[in-house]
Amino acid sequence: MRNALRSLWREPRAPDNPGILWWDRWLVVAVIVTAILEGLLRDDLALPALGIALAVGVALTLLWR
Predict the structure, then answer these.
(1) Among 5, 11, 27, 63, which residue carries the largest CB count within 10 Å?
(2) Model confidence pLDDT, tens digit, residues 40-53
(3) What does the radius of gyration of the chain's CA atoms come to, in whole angstroms?
(4) Rounded to an integer, what distance in angstroms lies between the CA atom of residue 8 and that of residue 45?
């Protein structure tokens, strides 16, 4: 398992990688705003702060991709 992960980590990047584009940033902002609004406005969530934190964390990984 360790060798498989190491080989994936050492894979070369795509030669024509465009990087982070403007719509990537807007997508992350939209997901974060939606997660915050849902966490604040829904009454049936057990742990809204945890849900918001997880959604924001996952949204930020979109920039890393």
Answers:
(1) 27
(2) 999 898 899 999 99
(3) 17
(4) 37
How far, CA to CA in Å, does 11 sit from each of 8, 19, 20, 34?
Answer: 5, 17, 19, 34
Q: CB neighbours of 38 closer than 8 A, spacing ≥ 6?
A: 51
Residue 33 pLDDT > 90, yes or no?
yes
Buried b (16+ CB within 10 A) or exposed e, 16-41: eeeeeeeeeeeebeebbeebeeebee
Distance (Å, whole) CA 29 – CA 3: 36
